[in-house]
Amino acid sequence: MQGKESLRIQVEPEGDSFPLMEIGTCEAEASEQWDYVLVAHPRTQRDPWQVRQQQFLQELERKGFRTKRIQDQKRVFFGIRADNSIFDLYRTLLLEPEGPTPNAELAALTPVPVAMRIRIVDFVVMKTKTSAGETFEDLVKDGVFEARFPLHKGEGYLKKTWAGWRHMFRKQPVDEIRNYFGEKVALYFAWLGWYNYMLVPAALTGLLVFLSGFSLFDASQISKEICEAHDILMCPLGDHSRRYQRLSETCTFAKLTHLFDNDGTVVFAIFMALWATVFLEIWKRQRACVVLHWDLYMWDEDQEEMALELINCPDYKLQPYQHSYLRSTVILILSLIMICLMIGMAHILVVYRVLASALFSSSALLFLEDQVTTAVVVTGALVHYVTISIMTKINKRVALKLCDFEMPRTFSERESKFTIRFFTLQFFTHFSSLIYIAFILGRINGHPGKSTRLAGLWKLEECHASGCMMDLFVQMAIIMGLKQTLSNCGEYLVPLFDEFMEMMIQYGFTTIFVAAFPLAPLLALFSNLVEIRLDAIKMVWLQRRLVPRKAKDIGTWLQVLETIGVLAVIANGMIIAFTSEFIPRVVYKYRYSPCLKEANSTVDCLKGYVNHSLSVFHTKDFQDPDRIEGSENVTLCRYRDYRNPPDYNFSEQFWFLLAIRLAFVILFEHVALCIKLIAAWFVPDVPQSVKNKVLEVKYQRLREKMWHGRQRLGGVGAGSRPPMPTHPNPASIFSARSTDV
Q1: N or C, which end of the chain has less CB nearby within 10 Å?
Q2: Residue 361 zone, left/alpha/beta (φ > 0; ψ -120 to 50; rest)
Q3: What sign has the CA pseudo-torsion 199, 205, 209, 212?
Q4: Could you tell me the pLDDT band of residue 154, with boundaries at 50, 70 and 90?
């Protein structure tokens, strides 16, 4: 604090919500600058809570902290400032033990960065215990203290250049973010900025694929045949339908389906597999450059953790890594139970869609009769989104409990384990329903006259009249659209958030099911442009200042991204093979089309495909044909499948198509994975310039150590001191800057 400063804090009333409140102003001497502030309610001198406060503050003073009590009308503030000897000790512990180096001499002359001060002070405050063994968290639970926070000061540059909507298209000041919020937050924004850059070609390609469907909106042979099929009657879909529907009535949906189910979809899916690999590989290069620029390339996280523990307590005993097969077994069983619960939630959505079909077809909702399937798909997506919102809170609590039960050794290890648990649960929560729609919906229903029923009463739902790709497209569009809009609004109103988790789920939507929703990268790009500024505003204006954390990479999230990339190849290959009409179209074109009869024919090779892809059902085989309007005048109806009457078993074409589908999946995955491996090999993780600069620093350090070693041996062969390197610090020899939106 300098002069008269308004203290902005977030009081934690319950849970994890931190609403910003202007508490008041505090008079302080101009020379006083506090690293940290503790907040408490005013107490009388004889109050036992005040005694416990004093005991905790005395422990901090014993460790080299200065404290000052400043009372407001509603709160009491305790300013805390650490002695510089603490930071000198920190630097000493993290230096090479063989002797001083140019880096050490330079560090001794430079002031302590504010982010470093806050990080060390926060660690000591949270680790300090009173004589009764009470930690700060224990005192907060008992109401002795109310909150802790580092002061928001020196953030003016970020407010002017970053934390505002007018800066949406400006380059991010990553170095300044690092100086204020620490390396971990800065790496998040550096990664998000690079993700946005890479989304631009993906979004443009996806938009091109989508628009190419528009160019053939009225020219597609399949759409033409469907629109002109006035004499083809489709069998009723489910129990809700009371009439035969003409195939031509699905004309509009057939044209819409062609927008995202065309030949360009396959090319786009392969492109996105390559894109995901290139994105990760170039990010690794970006990260190496940024970390070298920050002089963290050879930073060791375990060494940092142990140094902080020794600063807090010189008698600290090393805690070794531990592993318990019993705990691991319990965690595995509990995780599997939660995953089964997530899959069960997907089954509940199936039940909902079945019951919704029956409800929407009731007499009270006859106006929906022609659009029952569409209404079920839309409301099912909305229910899924609500389920995701509820289960996210449950998943987070479960992941935290599992993490605590595993008893990780350090904070970073705990964070890594929590990330894996939480992401696994979130993945099944978000994608189990999409997996059902993509690969199960409409495939276990039986056939007209002999339908699979839920509890022997309700017939399982069918795919949309225009195909299962329409269901998947609508589900993706609604869920992703809601998450990118309502979630951002919710985060803005209630700043509690797990930003990397949200980005990982978005990345999954953008890659795993992109074959069914080519506009996903474009939607993600627009959302992220808002997300960056929204996060900046929240962190600078609306939240208490985050405690800076040191990091040299994005940690476990990199493995998550690589896993998603592999899953994307498998899922998109299966979508094209089993959900899309691509394989049936190709097989018809090269096995049954009229082009095979005449080599120079001008006839479209897909002519007759619609009739070929529909099976025939005799209406007399319905169990209750009289309930269907006009049944006395209809002897045949059609349905989407490959079966032969009168037994309606799968036809030879079905088995041939199945073999081709499986072969395509294997071929697609191998080709895409080979492309990924080649791209990963072709683009080195670390630029050669970075390797050479690190190599130069290591060489100079070894020369320095050799010189000091010879000096200790009496100067034998010591000679003159080796020349000082032109650029002893990697940060000073690195000129490139990270590129971010």
Answers
A1: C
A2: alpha
A3: positive
A4: confident
